[in-house]
Amino acid sequence: MERYNLIVVGAGPAGLSAAIEAAGRGMSVIVFDENHRPGGQLFKQIHKFFGSKEHKAKIRGFKIGEQLLKEASDAGVKVQLDSTVTGMYLNNEVTVNHDGQICHYRGDSIIIATGASENMVPFDGWTLPGVIGAGAAQTMMNLHGVKPGSKVLMLGSGNVGLVVSFQLLQAGCEVVALVDAAPRIGGYGVHAAKVARTGVPFYLSHTIKKAEGTDCVTGVVIGQVDEHFKIIPGTEKHFDVDTICVAVGLSPMSQLLKMAGVKMEDNPRRGGQVPIVDEYGETSVPCIFAAGDVSGIEEASSAMIKGRMAGLRAAFRLGYTDEDSMKKSESDFAADLDSLRQGMFAPGNKGKLIEKTDEGIPVSMNLLTKGFVAADEIGRFPGVTVQKGIHPVIECTQNIPCNPCQDACAKHCIKIGSCITALPQVENPSPCTGCGLCVASCSGQAIFLVNESFESGFASVTLPYEFLPLPVAGDKGTALDRSGKPVCDAEVVSVRTSPAFDHTNLLTMKVPVDYAMSARFFKKN
């Protein structure tokens, strides 16, 4: 039997962060993961993260995974893959199935960071080939380069459903509709907006009635639901699709904790059956900790901090760090975690209708029900200004924990302040040089550069563009508005790429000046 100071189960963002923190304090650490490669969900995530520099904001998920793996290796953490932990027993003993053999390990402490599994919604035909989870779609696209389908309907408007819908579009799939039984979009408005402006329609207060097909999915029927979430007869709508993607939440994978005798609770706000933990992730069983989604569903940025906190507390429990050092680090971690839990999407606001921003500005109801801010609503937000010359227009309309745009602007055109959930503001007049770093840095793709004096009768609009093949200067096409509706002819002026933009290309199109504040996407003819 091998023995370690710390055994970590799960090599995702929480598990790796916990291992790095503990190993950095001098502990011998081993991490087990059942998958062929470490990093958990991070290696599926090709989008840029929110938060601040400290939270790895504007860095793509798979890059964060690479960084964590290097940190773990440098700290001396042993990561054993293709290893399924099959049981937890007395005296912190675990059994691990590796290469067909059952091996025994004992840890002075254990951190469970097994993450969560996708939920599924049963409907007529839900077992047909072609009905898949959003995580499975991400695995196919972003790890294996395989399109999940050609015509896809997405069920679920949380961040996972919105992000994966956009990634399906990037992979060349047609997303025919985004459907949710809830009356309001559950994820970040900026994620919804970047999907809506490509022309994908949203159907809120709708759900799937049945999947059509015999051997595989050939179509889907949705219907509007009443206040009891029952489909209203006569409201059915049909779509020809070959794939139905389901993103209806996650459930913590807490089985090992139950086996260890940890006290559990059924907490819908945290995702279901979760361990009862203290603020450091320690469970009712001494020296057994839980970190990441297994202790409550949150974003990966929060999971990394909670992992660090659990690793630190485990080190203190075993005498690998002193109390003063522990308290100082825990205070820093707690402050970082608190900043991510502010704003409209704070855990305490889950399920609530937030009608005003922290600044007292009415929230766009159109955004919550259709995925885009209406033209008569957008002007009330501080990042949206009309000025002479080139200037940023920031269509960030919710209090989301994110501030890379403020740091990106060398001319200090953009201000958020010390609270990272505050709405960004644009200086007026703006000393903008048109460098585009703010556009590329925005994790929600909500920043545009507008120049209403570009040419006589024409304006230029620079927008983030992450689709292939890239248009080239001179290409003619159509400008789409925030709803995805064609509004005018457009011509590509330039497409800029740079290592500093991290694969977010800056497409500048020329449009009639009257459409400078409405043209938000380019579609090639």
UniProtKB/TrEMBL annotation:
A Pfam family the protein falls into: Pyr_redox_2
PROSITE patterns: 4FE4S_FER_2 (PS51379)
InterPro entries: 4Fe4S_Fe-S-bd, FAD/NAD-bd_sf, FAD/NAD-binding_dom, Metab_Enz_Cyan_OpOx_G3PDH
Domain 4Fe-4S ferredoxin-type per the UniProt entry, residue ranges: 422-452
UniProt KW Oxidoreductase keyword: yes
Keywords linked to the UniProt accession: Oxidoreductase
Molecular-function annotations in GO: oxidoreductase activity
Oxidoreductase found in the keyword field: yes
Protein name in the entry: FAD-dependent oxidoreductase
Upper classification of the organism: Bacteria, Pseudomonadati, Spirochaetota, Spirochaetia, Spirochaetales
